[in-house]
Model the fold of this input.
Amino acid sequence: MTDTILIFDTTLRDGEQSPGCSMNLEEKLQVAEQLEALGVDIIEAGFAIASPGDFEAVSEVAKLCKRATVASLARAASGDIERAAEAVRHAQRPRIHTFIATSPLHMRVKLGKSPDEVLEAIDASVRLARNFVEDVEWSAEDATRSEPDFLARAIEIAIEAGARTINLPDTVGYATPDTYGAMFRDMINRVPNADKAIFSTHCHNDLGLAVANSLAAVMAGARQVESTINGIGERAGNAAVEEIAMAVRVRHDVIPLRTNVVSTEITRSSRLVSAITGFQVQPNKAIVGANAFAHESGIHQDGMIKDASTYEIMTPESVGLTTSNLVMGKHSGRAAFRQKLEELGYSLGDNAFQDAFARFKELADAKKTVFDEDIIALVDDEVLRGNDRIQVKEVEVYCGTHGPQRAVLTLELDGEELTAATKGNGPVDALFAAIRKLVPHEGAKLERYEVHAVTGGTDAQAEVSVLLSEDGRTTRGLGAHHDTMVASARAYVNALNKLLIKRERAPVHSRAMM
Ligand code: KIV
Ligand code: ZN
Done:
């Protein structure tokens, strides 16, 4: 058995299924490019049948990727499989990933199919997919709540029909390391043709066990791990790529395997995905959290000064973090700003760099000291906005004790400038009313509006987060600026842009079958 664990990244598919998350085409291409730099082996670029936008994204990622295999998800339905095949057609290494549920609960309640009908659908769907590509992955949705005898039969049929990868997802995050590992050991031992396929893990984090479960399956013989950057995904998320890769690397003594992940690209990948999705990484998150390499207590600091290995099991540099004492302020030039961005894990294209530098200069004029956190907020804000259809151009707000408060707002919508003047019960209300007037979206509800200061001090930048919902879809927008009202307008407009993307997507039901 090979000692390489293939990393199947599903940030663009399962990750994008996180509530509140959506990425447009440009953003997906940026992430795909970074995933290749990170060295993942397979990129699941989307669910081609879900919408024309998803199809286009899979198809463009397929054209872009030079090294990684590009996969599209498909239910056990001929329409899905044909659409997936069409979308990955231009990939250097195309894969169709087809799935169907195998647990009694899912088969009965969700699919309305008997176990025999499901087995027939597995055979037909994998065979159909094999007509288009050699590389077919089959997943047993809700594998961890499936009957072992039935699961073994389903796997055997999928391999017989031509599946090269067998994925056994813990769809609802129910497994524990012991049970998940045992399931892999059992299936690999008892399925007669198991040696003809690579077994794969796909773990959700409902009990906080996704990474532990994935590693348990690897120890039991799995050689593909499905995961996402920062662990984003449905509900509590998926196993995090960076945690899997670093666990394998740091604990090679007990996990004598390897991945192709270029660990120094981890921080860059994490920052990009967090900026694009608006999902901020919790400070205490393993590997990529802001505190992952921070030492507060005196005893720890003392140990660190004497020898970093006293309290660090890996170096910050190994995950792409570099630190320096480069202090940024209004006298800092382009070269220093570029170096700072590199240290923080960003690589911006020329236009984005120039825009970010202009914003940095503006901020440095308004604020005495520009901290790393300020630059992170500013660059994330710039990355977020780059491809938005609606952009905030000008904001003026009149507020004070005597209402009603008023706002004058100019937006650019698909290149055209539009201005509105509105009143409201407070400045934020007036501002958001102006956005609603310029881009009507009556069906959408503002679920949450939150403001926090990026650093201390009265001149701190404000980071605003906005959650919008419409017909069961939610989107999250972020905005940062030293003026809280500008940050608020940017955050709302960012969430609205994401809603426009989500509106194009038809809901996908599980029942479509062969
Ligand atoms: O969690 C899951 O079961 C999935 C499958 C579609 C692979 O995401
Ligand atoms: Zn999943």
Observations:
- The chain has a mean pLDDT of 93.
- The radius of gyration is 24 Å.
- The first helix runs from residue 25 to 38.
